[in-house]
Amino acid sequence: MEENGANYYVKETSYPANVIPPEVVNNTSAGQMWNSSFYYQVPTLADNGMVTLTLQNKLNKGALTLNKTDLKTGNPLAGATFRVSVANPDAAAQTLLALQGFTQNAGDATVFEKTVVMGTASSTTLSGLPVVNADGTQLRYAVVETAAPEGYRLPDDNAPREFILAQQTNHQTATTYQNPPSATLTALKLFYKDWENLNNPLLNPAVCKHRSNADGCHQCRGAGAVCRFGRNQDLCDGRDDAANRV
């Protein structure tokens, strides 16, 4: 305990494991920073009096909630997959991360990561995440969506989102990812000539190309297709002309 004029202050020189150093919490309502250390202020002492000072530590644990919705409707959406990573955690932080299913990246030993599969849920919370290293360094988490739900595509802006939980109220935060639905296009190919009264489905529309020759016959140029329409019945009645196939 040190005296500063008429006021007394207490510095916590050691604290329980897995708590955030008081210098990081830096609760100005409970005391003040001095020479890079945090000092708790003692209530005013009266002559021959006694006071009780309670020192409160915060656990080195935070939480990150991921929400998933449909971009157009805003409705909850299940089935997404995310990658959550954090760089440069110290030994104590690595122990906490391992308890939450994080593993060391195979290509970068400084990064620990976890794959989050939401399955049938549209929201999930990662809790027990360390927010600082023992020296007070604030940990930075990165989140990226790696797989969109069935029938949807990844967000147009799918750059990694970064979160510093130590800077969030109660070390908790949430973020929402919105997926646009995939588009489906159905095409029906028809052809029409002035002698026909009805449109007719085109045979083998993916590869068949028709043209009219001098006899007015639609010559098939699709593999395995046959010529069915034309003014000259003798030339065009269902003939499979191998020379006209491609």
CATH superfamily of the largest domain: Immunoglobulins
Round the Cα radius of gyration to an integer and report it. Answer: 35 Å
CATH architecture of the largest domain: Sandwich
For the biggest β-sheet, the strand order reads: 7-8-6-10-11
One letter per element, helices H and strands E, the order comes to EEHEEEEHEEEEEEEEEEH
Number of domains: 3
Between the first and last Cα atoms, what is the distance in angstroms? Answer: 94 Å
Low-confidence spans = 204-212, 220-246
The structure class reads mainly beta
What is the strand content? Answer: 25-35%
Give the C-level CATH assignment of the largest domain. Answer: Mainly Beta
Give the averaged pLDDT, no decimals: 79
Residue share in helix: under 10%
Main beta-sheet strand count, sense and barrel state:
5 strands, antiparallel
General form: elongated
Q: How many helix segments?
A: 3
* Assembly form of the protein: single chain
Please give the number of β-strands.
16
CATH third-tier fold name of the largest domain: Immunoglobulin-like
